[in-house]
Design goal:
Blueprint: E1 48-50, H1 59-69, E2 72-76, H2 82-96, H3 100-104, E3 115-117, E4 132-139, H4 156-181, H5 188-192, E5 199-207, E6 219-222, E7 228-232, E8 240-244, E9 247-250, E10 258-262, H6 264-269, E11 279-281, E12 289-297, E13 303-304, H7 308-314, E14 323-324, H8 325-328, H9 330-335, H10 341-349
Parallel strand pairs: 1-2
Antiparallel strand pairs: 2-10, 3-4, 4-5, 5-12, 6-11, 7-10, 7-12, 8-9, 8-11, 13-14
The structure holds N-oxalylglycine and nickel (II) ion.
Residues 222, 224, 229, 279, 293 line the site of nickel (II) ion (NI).
Amino acid sequence: MDCLQEWPEPIVPVQSLSEAPTLPDRYVKPPSQRPSVGDAARSLDIPVVDLAMLPGGGVVEAVSEACRHWGFFQVVNHGVSLELVRRFREAWRGFFHLPMEEKKRYANSPRTYEGYGSRLGVDEGANLDWGDYYFLHFLPCYLKDHDKWPAVPPCLREATDEYGVEVRKLCRRVMRALSLGLGLDADRLQKALGGDDEGVCIRVNFYPRCPRPDLALGLSPHSDPGGMTVLLADDHVHGLQVCKDGVWITVHPLPNAFIINVGDQIQVLSNAEYKSVEHRAIVHAKEERLSVAFFYNPRSDIPIGPVPELLTVTGRAALYRPMTFDDYRLFIRRKGPRGKSQVESLEAMAIPGT
Ligand code: OGA
Ligand code: NI
């Protein structure tokens, strides 16, 4: 694992470049990857699910349909306190607005990615994305370490703890709906993720203003490697785009909503009934943007493969060979965002008839 010990070259926080008059070459995407202006105008948007619907009122069907056809949906009436969401978001905005020396005390390394960082992947000379982030472990408890979280603003740790507890509850509700939507027992997917030993990581994304948003991306196309992601979008500035049938669709977050998406591990567990979908973030010339991804993951040392009962019911062959999440996530940690190439390469390795 030597290649994951240190960054291949000095890290330059994007925030420190943000006021430059021109976009440094490292951030200029090849023409085929640049965000095209036309995409944003499309009226299509991801499905919305109201979680306050009465029991039997269609939540299971709505969630399951969204995960089969889009891999993405927004939830409203999700039960997480709006006051808490506001406090949590403001705490993290406060952190990113601290002087650079303060933030650099938390500089991360590719060994665990925990802390303040600016790149994903360790390939020397790689093209880079126009975004900084803070990555931390929330679960399991033995990986959670307050000393690795910012000490300033003072309310940040408490707000992050409370937020983690509440969003975990939401994830469990959604997992039940996802299980039922596959015809499985309500707790089946949760069990497959390790029961009460699931993992949670939080990635706070900060996308500074960009001198040439037409040439750069805040985050390159990728699918999330974990189980499921709950994204808290910026309350004013859009930027998330989802690839639907080969076209980039701009998501317009509803007020007080969360955006939920299927990760590669749920695609594997569901034997591709539910799909993880490529997404990316664009940036703007005049507005910075903050988003928070809550990654709901399997316990990292158990092999994750298609749920056996599901194969019996559907009579389909397993599309994936089991792999632990510890092994799976090394790919994105080494290579950075690479579309859906990893889960697709896992498909190619499956042995037909097993
Ligand atoms: C992520 C992600 C999108 C965004 O952090 O994995 O896809 O809008 N973020 O910041
Ligand atoms: Ni993502």
